[in-house]
């Protein structure tokens, strides 16, 4: 089963990407985003896509423009994650048959994203909304809407978020920080997957 966990590899370099990607997949995390404010992000996305093949979904985070979407697609990316709700970015993503996960914080943004074709919503910053905020918003979202909590969601509070109806999580510094090697990232990923499974019951 593919776990609803997205690894956010902010700051990763192309040289280390394949080994770290392999460590994540081996631990059970098979969706990987490289934020575009990382060093040579398109090269890292291309390296991960080539190395991992169909064992993972690889793409970009911090995607802010249609030009970014096109560049990620050319690098082999399959998923586009943004911190904001830009309907042009969402529509360009879907026109290329990629997954679209825009950032939202309000019901207005959530509906704008869904109307534009988003596959799911990234509640961001999760720390500001909290599980209570998600629970309140869930009451007005269309049934079946996928919402991932990002920023302020992690092993220490997976249970609270799941109880508030979070469908999944984006994980950054708890999983990867520049300077960590593949073994260390693999150990963190294994612990996070175990915590998620425990929280899920």
Automatic annotation (TrEMBL):
Gene3D superfamilies for the chain: Aldolase class I (3.20.20.70)
Membrane-spanning segments: none
Pathway entry: Carbohydrate acid metabolism
Keyword Lyase (UniProt): yes
Stored InterPro entries: Aldlse_KDPG_KHG, Aldolase_TIM
Name the UniProt record assigns to this protein: 2-dehydro-3-deoxy-6-phosphogalactonate aldolase
Keywords: Carbohydrate metabolism, Lyase
NCBIfam families: PRK09140.1
Subunit structure: Homotrimer.
Family, as annotated: Belongs to the KHG/KDPG aldolase family.
Domain of life of the native organism: Bacteria
């Amino acid at each position: 089963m593919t776990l609803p966990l997205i690894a956010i590899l902010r700051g990763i370099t192309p040289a280390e990407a394949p080994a770290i990607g392999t460590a994540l997949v081996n631990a059970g995390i098979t969706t990987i985003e490289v934020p575009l404010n990382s060093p040579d992000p398109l090269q890292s996305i291309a390296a991960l896509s080539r190395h991992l093949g169909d064992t993972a979904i690889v793409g970009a985070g911090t995607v802010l423009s249609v030009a970014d979407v096109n560049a990620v697609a050319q690098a082999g990316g399959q998923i586009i994650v943004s911190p904001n709700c830009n309907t042009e970015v969402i529509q360009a993503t879907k026109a290329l048959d990629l997954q679209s996960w825009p950032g939202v914080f309000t019901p207005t943004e959530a509906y704008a994203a869904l109307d534009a074709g988003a596959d799911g919503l990234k509640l961001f910053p999760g720390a500001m909304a909290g599980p209570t905020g998600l629970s309140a918003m869930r009451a007005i979202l269309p049934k079946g809407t996928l919402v991932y909590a990002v920023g302020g969601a992690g092993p220490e509070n997976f249970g609270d978020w799941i109880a508030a109806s979070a469908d999944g999580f984006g994980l950054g510094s708890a999983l990867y920080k520049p300077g960590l090697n593949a073994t260390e990232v693999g150990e963190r990923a294994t612990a996070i997957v175990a915590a998620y499974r425990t929280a899920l019951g």
